[in-house]
Amino acid sequence: MNMIKVYYGDNVNRTPTMVENTTPIHAFMDAHGMDRSRTTQMSGTTLRPEDMNKTFADFGFGVGDGATTVVLTTIAKLDNA
């Protein structure tokens, strides 16, 4: 278990926090009031519904030489987009 820095929020506002890399994505989002019904991106990659049960470590964050900083954002999909 390693600590990683997660910048979370939307495409305008991001808040940094430290978290264990063994934390599931859905648990982090719920704990920080993030809307899981929106499109979610992690460091530029769009997450699928089945990715929400994975941990940050499952994506390589904080593991070995893996990155220790993550950007987790939710994006509202507009009807006309």
Can you walk through the features of this model?
The protein has 81 residues and is mostly beta strands. The chain has a single domain (3-75), classed as Phosphatidylinositol 3-kinase Catalytic Subunit, Chain A, domain 1 (Ubiquitin-like (UB roll)), CATH 3.10.20.90. The protein is 9% helix and 33% strand. Strands 2-1-5-3-4 form a five-stranded mixed β-sheet, with no helix packed on it. The longest helix has 7 residues, at 25-31. The chain is globular, with a radius of gyration of 12 Å. The model has no long low-confidence stretch (mean pLDDT 91).
Number of E-type strands: 5
Portion in strands: 25-35%
Question: Unreliable segments (pLDDT under 50, ≥5 consecutive)?
Answer: none
- Give the tally of structural domains: 1
Query: Portion of residues in helices?
Result: under 10%
Please state the structural category. Answer: mainly beta
What is the fourth-level CATH superfamily?
Answer: Phosphatidylinositol 3-kinase Catalytic Subunit, Chain A, domain 1
Based on Cα principal axes, name the global outline.
globular
CATH architecture: Roll
Distance between the termini: 40 Å
Order of helices and strands: EEHEEE
| Topology-level CATH name | Ubiquitin-like (UB roll)
Report the total helices.
1
Question: Given this structure, which CATH class is correct?
Answer: Alpha Beta
Largest sheet: 5 strands, mixed
* Strands ordered across the widest β-sheet: 2-1-5-3-4
The overall pLDDT, averaged over residues, is 91
**Rg measurement, Å:** 12 Å
